[in-house]
Amino acid sequence: VPYETLNKRFRAAQKNIDRETSHVTMVVAELEKTLSSCPAVDSVVSLLDGVVEKLSVLKRKAVESIQAEDESAKLCKRRIEHLKEHSSDQPAAANMWKKKRMDRMMVEHLLRCGYYNTAVKLARQSGIEDLVNIEMFLTAKEVEESLERQETMTCLAWCHDNKSRLRKMKGRQNENEPKMGRKSKSASDYSKENDDLVMETIKGKPELSCLEFSLRIQEFIELIRQNKRLDAVRY
């Protein structure tokens, strides 16, 4: 999980920096174009202010991205160091490692069972907060609670953040589907064909995962329930 987080933050940082660099390039090009036509001083000052603003944003985004990557890299390093402790020749160190492993397993089990507060307290008391994936489970908790409130925005945001992984999962599911010979079509076959046809009508959205598509359908249904039929059609 820490490595996946590092990889994800690296790719996000690359996109952010590329985008802000493009913005800087555009305003600099506009400034150069304006300077070639003997402009007024006020217009040049305004363009220079724009360049400074874009450079400031680029610097801020770069610093934030580097800090996030550095945090993830340090977390990976701490977990590697913890694994190295397993090979210690000192019995006391080996016993301590086994205790931490047991605490880690208990925290993971509590998180999977939904006892988030207990898991957080145990991790804090045992000093293993850097060795367990509490943040991931807390994010899942937020998504679950939002869906229980019949809200989809939090889950859709999660789908957007993890769209690459969801797309890969969808691809593996398609590859694992059994290939059957020809047979007479049942009602479920026609239903599946209809679902496939609906998917094909989503122009410009070939990357939708099954989860995100289900959420989009639910949002459409909720609009119908609220008698917002025109909004539903537009959606």
TrEMBL record:
It is found in: Nucleus matrix. One of its GO terms (biological process) is proteasome-mediated ubiquitin-dependent protein catabolic process. GO terms for cellular component: cytoplasm; GID complex; nuclear matrix. Pfam families: CTLH. Residues 136-231 form the CTLH domain. Transmembrane segments: none annotated. PROSITE patterns: CTLH, LISH. InterPro entries: CTLH/CRA, CTLH_C, Fyv10_fam, LisH. Residues 167-192 are annotated as: Disordered. It comes from the Eukaryota. GO terms for molecular function: ubiquitin-protein transferase activity. Its main location: nucleus. Keywords: Erythrocyte maturation. This is E3 ubiquitin-protein transferase MAEA. It comes from Tyto alba.
